[in-house]
């Protein structure tokens, strides 16, 4: 099976480069410079040229703050171009596995969000990702859209690596306690995508549609940080761990509003996989171990040039 992966240099993209490296599978892993979602013609031409059996899209404009200043670019990369990519895939009968976000919800819920719950994004990034979801659904009958949340890994530029960077500079780190969500390890998302790809290869079909894809057991950012520091201390990355001060979002103003409660109920996906995603604490341990040994999780194949 030939798989075309977009966004191969991101957290999930890198993890997919490992997880989709399997006997009998040919992986074409492309980063932004090879397939830029700001240029839909480039992306559609790539699909046409490669003729894969399956497309996995891990590319996205994920800078939530920057998206407020460049909404047109966020909308193009996360919205319009996803629609163009999906349209060419539909025409060529190539199924698509796409990723979306908990930020499509406004965060006013009181229980974990299910797939059928009403969406109402409160920032530009969330709105652009919702546009991508809708365009994908409108043009392609054979898609899997995995909404995930609070993605972390050993790769720089996420909550875990930011916390560890701050911890190396300070004795006290302030973290908001009034934002609740489901942290999810990039490696666990990639494993899920590989499981779905394997099933598609075997049966030539999948239960197409929208799924929530997060680790179980929501927590606050404050709790997430405390677990990160405790695992990092155990892995020898911090000596000692900093004191974590709980603050409110009001004390940490940001350009983009964040949903206060964006936990996802991923039981629909657990049902088709036969198991839930692992607890995020296991992912924190893995990421800390990777950082402690300063090695990548496995030999990562190089990108196609
Ligand atoms: N990160 C989270 O907390 C989070 C939460 C919920 C959902 N998600 C979703 O999960 C998916 C994977 O996210 P991630 O955490 O792996 O994000 P990431 O680490 O930021 O990776 C995104 C990748 O997309 C690439 N990209 C950005 N603009 C592009 C463009 N114009 N054309 C092509 N590629 C472009 C980036 O390229 P460069 O490396 O060149 O910048 C980056 O490698 C995304 O769909 C995201 O919306 C993420």
UniProtKB/TrEMBL annotation:
CDD domains tied to this protein: dTDP_HR_like_SDR_e (cd05254)
Name this protein carries in UniProt: dTDP-4-dehydrorhamnose reductase
| Keywords of the record | NADP, Oxidoreductase
Q: Which NCBIfam families match?
A: rmlD (TIGR01214)
Query: Which GO biological process entries does UniProt record here?
Result: dTDP-rhamnose biosynthetic process; O antigen biosynthetic process
Molecular function GO labels: dTDP-4-dehydrorhamnose reductase activity
Q: Does the keyword Signal apply?
A: no
Write down the EC number: 1.1.1.133
């Amino acid at each position: 099976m030939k798989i075309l992966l977009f966004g191969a240099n991101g957290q999930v993209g890198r993890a997919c480069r490992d997880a989709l490296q399997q006997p009998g599978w040919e992986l074409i892993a492309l980063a932004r410079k090879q397939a830029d979602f700001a240029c839909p013609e480039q992306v559609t031409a790539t699909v046409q040229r490669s003729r894969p059996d399956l497309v996995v899209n891990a590319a996205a404009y994920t800078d939530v703050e920057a998206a407020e200043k460049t909404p047109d670019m966020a909308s193009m990369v996360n919205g319009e171009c996803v629609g163009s990519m999906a349209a060419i895939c539909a025409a060529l009968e190539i199924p698509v596995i796409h990723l979306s976000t908990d930020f499509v919800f406004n965060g006013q819920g009181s229980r974990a969000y299910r797939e059928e719950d009403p969406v109402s994004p409160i920032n530009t990034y969330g709105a652009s990702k919702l546009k991508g979801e809708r365009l994908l659904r409108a043009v392609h009958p054979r898609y899997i859209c995995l909404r995930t949340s609070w993605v972390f890994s050993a790769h720089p530029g996420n909550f875990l690596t930011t916390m560890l960077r701050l911890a190396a500079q300070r004795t006290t780190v302030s973290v908001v306690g009034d934002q609740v969500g489901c942290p999810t390890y990039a490696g666990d998302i990639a494993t899920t995508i590989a499981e779905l790809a394997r099933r598609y290869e075997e049966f030539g079909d999948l239960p197409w549609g929208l799924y929530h894809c997060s680790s179980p057991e929501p927590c606050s950012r404050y709790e997430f940080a405390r677990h990160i520091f405790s695992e990092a201390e155990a892995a020898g990355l911090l000596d000692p761990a900093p004191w974590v001060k709980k603050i409110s979002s009001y004390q940490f103003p940001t350009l983009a509003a964040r949903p206060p409660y964006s936990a996802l109920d991923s039981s629909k996906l657990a049902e088709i996989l036969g198991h839930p995603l692992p607890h995020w604490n296991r992912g924190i341990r893995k990421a800390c171990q990777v950082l402690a040994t300063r090695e990548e999780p496995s030999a990562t194949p190089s990108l196609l040039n």
